[in-house]
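Course assignment 3, question 2. Fill in each field.
Student: A.L.
Task: Predict the tertiary structure for the chain below.
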Amino acid sequence: MKKYLVILIFSTLLPLSLSAQQFPIISQYNWDQYLVNPAAAGSTDYIPITLIFRKMWVGVHDSPSIQMLSSNMPVGNRMGVGLKIFNFSQGPLRHTGFEATYAYHIPLSETGPKLSFGLTGSFYQYYLDKESLNMEDPSDPVLLGDSKKFVPDADFGMLLYDKKYFVGFTVASLFQGKINLGTEGVAEQKKVRHYYLNGGYNFDAGENIMLQPSVMMKMIEAGVFQADINFMMVFNKMINFGVSYRTGDAVGIQVGYQNDFLLFGYNYDIAVSDIRTQTSGSHEIIFIYKIKYRNSQ
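Answer field:
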């Protein structure tokens, strides 16, 4: 029985929703587009240092949790670089790694939008904590296999943006690496390409109110489709309140505070999928410290 539990957990090692996605879901990605698109590296006039903590499906034993630290910055007039370090754990399985990004930004006019292209190289380590397993059969392939696996990969992104709107496209997992812990077919998974198309617009709804609707469509080559629909209100350029809906997964509520130097946000996801009877929801905290960049693009 334990063996099949391990298989089930590994089959969702990277999926953080019931639709079998292989990459961490971050609900508050609109505060830092670099979290979902490498082309956004260097697209702001400040250097964001972003820290994220997300705990999924509270009430479910050994449910997934994510910790991520990222930053990006412009280099010169047209280039940007970025770095992410992250850890994802679920039960006895852990996925850690880092990503390094290069982006190039092309002004389409002197004061108008820019078009950028970005490429991220990533290096992941998958780790199975065998000591936490209580297997009935000591010769089980799960115990005899490897406990670590290193997998390189890459992502590509494009972004059209200015101060009022953005439209982005990302292809994740270009190499489609195979995660194999040497367990005779048990605890194996092949990564598949993910495609993200997102966009948003900033509307001035009054002297002190800004509306920020956005949408993200996600497609996996395995045939899974999911969409995020988001609506945010910003009062006095400081207080944020928003709602979101992730199809087949969750309804989210966001609150936050921001100023010229920092942003703090909290998101609470209410599950609408079959797991809703087992969990009280998911929690996510984002903190962004902004360092002004004197040679902004």
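Instructor remarks: Residues 192 and 222 are 7 Å apart (CA to CA). The domain at 2-292 is CATH 2.40.160.40 (Porin).
Grade: pending
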